[in-house]
Every structure is written in C-alpha cells, then in structure tokens.
Amino acid sequence: MPVDVRLPISGMFFAVGLLLLIYGTAVEGLGTGAGRLNALWGGAMVLFSLVLGYYGARAERRARIRERGPAG
Amino acid sequence: MRAQGLAAVDYAIIAVYFVFVLGVGWLVRRSVRTSKDFFEAGRRTPAWVAGLAFVSANLGAKEVIGMGASGAKYGIDTAHFYWVGAIPAMVFVAIFMMPFYYGSRARSVPEYLRLRFDEKTRAFNAGSFAVMTVFSSGVSMYAMGKLFNLLLGWDMDASMLAAAGVVLAYTTLGGLTSAIYNEVLQFCLIVAGLLPLVILGLHNVGGWDGLSNHLANAAIARGYPEGAYTHAWKYMGDSSQNPIGVEWLGLVMGLGFVLSFGYWCTDFLVVQRAMAADSTTAARRTPLIAAFPKMLFPALVILPGMIAFALTASGQAQLIPAKLDAALQPLMDSHGRPVLDFDLATPSMLLHYFPNGLLGLGLTALLASFMSGMAGNVTAFNTVFTYDLYQSYLRPRASDAHYLWVGRAATVGGVALSIGAAYVARSFNNIMDVLQLVFAFVNAPLFATFALGMFWRRSTGHGAFVGLVSGTAAAALHHGLTLPAGSVPGVKGGYFGVLHTFPSELAQTFWTAITAFVTCAAVTILISLFTRPRPAEELHGLVYSLTPRAGSKDRLLPWYERPVVLAAVVLTATLFLNIVFW
C-alpha cells in the first residue's frame, strides 16, 4: 500500500470540518441554530480527523521501520 | 422543497472532496506496475480496509436513495434487506465460499466458474455480468443527474459527466487499489453526511416513540395494524397486514435465501474487494468486518425515509412530493391519495434539515455514494472484460504490460459505455424496473450454480450451463404469468397472461427468484446425473469435500481475528436486532 488509508481520510475530514467550523462560527455566528450546528459538527469532524491522523501516521511510521528491516 | 440555495461553503466542500479523491488516485498510481496491481490491488489489502470497501462498493445510489425510499414506503420491514438478507449471506460467503474464491487463485468470479465447470459457463456469466455492470452504472449515473437537476437545478449532463470524469480519472490511474482507498474514504464521508440527518430528524419527530406514534396513524389510515411500519416481524404472518405485502416464507426464502445469497455470494462487484485481501484469512474476515457497519445501516439509510414519510403523512411537512403525470398533475392511487415519489425522501430530508455548510456535506455524501457505486462497477467490469473476455477469447498470450494497458482502456470504455447507458435510460420510463428484473433473472439461478458447484462434486459443466439458462427462462416465464396488484401487463409482468396476482412487486420478485433458483438447481442436478463429472483430482481447492479446512490455521489466530468467532458475533448481534424490532 502506498500510504496508510487513514491519512487521506484524516486530511479530508480535517479540511471539511475546518470549513464547517469556520463557517459556523465566523460567518453564521454561534447565536444562530445553523451556526451552532455547523460549528458542532465541524468540530466533531476535526477531532475525528486528528485521532484518525494520529493512528494513521503511527501505522505509517511502523510500516517504514518494518520495510527498512532490523538493521535500519 | 427548495430548488436552489447552495452557498460558497457548500461548493467548497464538494471541491475538497473532488480534490481528495483525485489526489488518492494520483498517490496510488505509483504502486501500479503490473496487471495484478491494477486488477487485484496486488492482493495486499488489509482485511479492515477490504471490509470497508466491500460494504462501500455496495453503498451506491440504490442503497442510499433506494433504501430511504423503501423505508418511506415499507417502514422498518425494509431492514429485512439487511437482517435477513445481507448479513446471513455475508457470513456464508466469508465462512464457506471465500476459501474457494481466494484459494483457487481465480482472479474473478467467472474465472472460478471456468476452473470448476467449463468455458461456456464462464462465458455466459462473464457476458451477462459485463452487460449488467455497464447498465447498472449507467442507470445510477442517470439517476444522479436527474436528482441533482431536480433538487438543485444543476445541468444534468454536466453533473453526470463531472462525476464520471472524476471516477474515470482515479480508477484509470490507480485501478482497484485506488477504487478501494476511495471507497473507504467515501464510506466515512457518507456516514459523516447522513448521521446528523438522522439525529436532527429523530429529534424533530420526538425520538423513536414519536416516530412510532406518527407512523401508527399512517398505518391505520392505510388499513394496516398500527405497528405495521415499526415492527419487522409481528405482522409477517399475513401478506395483507404488512406494507411490504409478503408473508414470512416468501421473505425468508426469496429475499433471505435466494436473492441475497445470489447477490452477496456471486456478484463479482463485492467479491472482488475480498479477493484483494492479503491472505485467505483476511479474505474470509473481509465480509465479516463489513457485516458490522452493514447491520447498523438501517439507522442511517432507512430511518430518514421513515421520518420523511411520518412527517408527510401527518401533514407536518410535505417532504415527499407527489409523482406527476404527463400534464404535470399529481398522480392519484385507487383510494384517491396522491402517489408519492419516495425516491425523493432522503434528498428532501437533506434540504429540509441541513443549513448551508452541512448541506454541502450531505450532498457530497450523496455524490460519494453514487461515485463509489460507479467505481465498483467500473473496476469489476475492467477485470472481467480483460481476464474473462479479452485474454480468454481475443489475445490469450500477450505480455503483462499489454493486459495492464487493456485494463486501463477497458476502464475508459466502461465509463464511456456507462455514459451511453445513462442516455439510453433517459429515453425509457421503465428502464430501472427492467434492470431490477434482469438482476433477479440472472443472479438468483447463479447462486444455485455456485452452491452446487462448491458443495456437490458430481455437478458437471453441462449441468451448470443448462441449469443457468433454464433458471433464467423459468424466471421469465414466472414473471410473464404473474402481476403485482394494481399493475397492467407489460414491464411489471403478465405479458404471457395473468395466472396469479401478488399483493406487491416485491412479493412477485421474491417468488420469481425462488422459481429461478429451484429450476436451476433441479435442472443442474438432473443433467449432471446424466453427464460425466470431472475427475476428483481436478477439483481440489474448488469443491468443499475435496479442500482442506481452513479452520486448523484459524486456531493460531487471536480469538477476535478468527472468522468463525466473528461470524458468531455477527449472527448473534443480528438476531438481537431482529428481536428488538420484532
């Protein structure tokens, strides 16, 4: 596998989540229902992307070490 | 329903999605050096990735839009497609069939048929599969274009061509690996796009209790018992007491056994994902891993339809519009009620509940479902075309680089044919019905062929071929002599005369499938008994009784990776869901 599949998913969720978060807070404002909804779901997506990205990066690092073998 | 109203943020989310799926194709292209990399993802996909791709390849338009529509029409009975249909079939393919598919080293389902039976059986399956795949992909593309045109006023040709262009780009670059990567990505996106819809909708109707109360009134108004839309089994004893119009025997045999096993166990579109796994055990675990999200999908795809129907029926919101006749007047049924366009249930829910921002995410989830289904069809088509048609009949001994080139050309050809099929679909009102019918005609007898081929070593190539053709003919005969209530003879059946009328189209489809399966099995057995079987030594690894059990190796795995343990957990959880929604 060229790259751990969690990394692109994490990247996309981060980008989309950030868009929703910024749109909800800065454009619509947290005083509106729509703003709160976008910010909440955007925040959840960003959080998910960070967790997924961490595990993806860890798996990728381990795979690289395995590929190099015990001698490094 | 609003017909426009997308903001810049919605377009930005759609653009981000396109950038990432194309980026994945670009990233993966470097790992594609041989035809095995292109068609089989190098057989190095981890089980959990193959599992999510397995479920996502099936998560096309038919699933997201179609199951929402069925949820609105039939209520919780639609969950039978999962809890009686898909899940038991996925367990069966994992435990019993995957060792043959993977262990025989066949590169496709038709190739397994050649190894087990003969060339003509493979050719029949490869030809029918290629045609069905292209049409299926084209009809989905047409449905997508029509939906976005209706909801958002987008140009139909432009939306179809844009989605097809992106799918073409990433599948041509990275082949099956790219499709699998993107299917996992699309799976996550579909969940992220639909989950808030379910939460908002349920909150709005007062939770499950509120939804049940709304639907109880709708059920009584339609002459059903009050729990008909919210109980999966309670009213299955009598076909007139449940909205799906079928009794438990037809449901269990037609949907649960024949149609679902026929699809999940023999359709190369899904089986190809498991065959890309990195070991036999991983291939066996693939459908089982897929079964976990699959059993929870009714909450994601059926509930929005049920909520839309509840709100429409109670008059709180007109979420499901009426179908219109040629004069653009609402169509009425025999009771004087408008005939609802259930296909619009889930998309209308998105427009009703989501503000800009989330709306972009929801629409991207719909786009992702269309594209994952299309990519699944295209990658299955290019493999079957290259291995089972081109390499077998046109150019058998060419170089690997040549087949890799043909695979890429077949991808372009498959997408072009799909676009052509989409325009054909545009010209016919009933092409969706015809397509569904063809699937029932072809897939149901095919499962009998596979079951006998894998579990009865005496079955022969002549038996399998004649059985397949007879099963398909029997399906056509049954369909031609029966009709669903309220339909006129034609595409819906009855073209040879009407001997029996079924309460619903689904009941007719289930019994057509049962007829096809039984005929195919009976004819295959009969012809096999009169023809010479292949010697046992040629059938090692292809027939159950002549293949070493995989179970002994499983004991070396941790318990949570053993296929039999996973299968037991899946079946117990499914049984639990059936009891909870009894």
Outline the structure in words.
The complex is a heterodimer of chains A (72) and B (582). With 72 residues, chain A is mostly helical. Chain A has two helices and no strands. The longest helix of chain A has 36 residues, at 33-68. The two termini of chain A are 20 Å apart. Chain B has helices spanning 8-28, 35-40, 47-57, 61-74, 80-103, 109-116, 119-152, 156-205, 207-221, 248-266, 268-275, 280-313, 345-353, 358-394, 400-427, 431-455, 461-481, 505-529, 551-554, 563-580, and strands at 482-484, 500-502. In chain B, strands 1-2 form a two-stranded parallel sheet. In chain B, α3 crosses α8. Chain B is built from 20 helices and two strands. The model of chain B has no long low-confidence stretch (mean pLDDT 88). The A-B interface holds A 1-3, 5, 8-9, 11-13, 15-16, 19-20, 23-24, 27-28, 33-34, 37-38, 41-42, 45 and B 9, 12-13, 16-17, 20, 23-24, 27-28, 30-31, 44-46, 49, 177, 181, 184-185, 188-189, 192, 196, 200, 355-358, 361, 364.
For the structure shown, list the relevant keywords:
heterodimer; A: 72 residues; mainly alpha; 2 helices; rod-shaped; B: 582 residues; Sodium/glucose cotransporter; two-stranded parallel ribbon; 2 strands
Distance between the termini of chain B: 34 Å
Low-confidence stretches of chain B: none
Helix content of chain B: over 70%
Q: Biggest sheet of chain A: strands, sense, closure?
A: none
The helix content of chain A, as a percent range, equals over 70%
Q: How many H/I helices of chain A? A: 2
Second CATH tier, the architecture of chain B: Up-down Bundle
For the biggest sheet of chain B, the summary is:
2 strands, parallel
Measure the end-to-end span of chain A.
Answer: 20 Å
Number of strands of chain B: 2
General shape of chain A: rod-shaped
Total discrete domains of chain A: 1
Structural class of chain B: mainly alpha
Q: How do the helices and strands follow one another from N- to C-terminus of chain B? A: HHHHHHHHHHHHHHHHHEEHHH
Strand content of chain A: under 5%
Order of helices and strands of chain A: HH
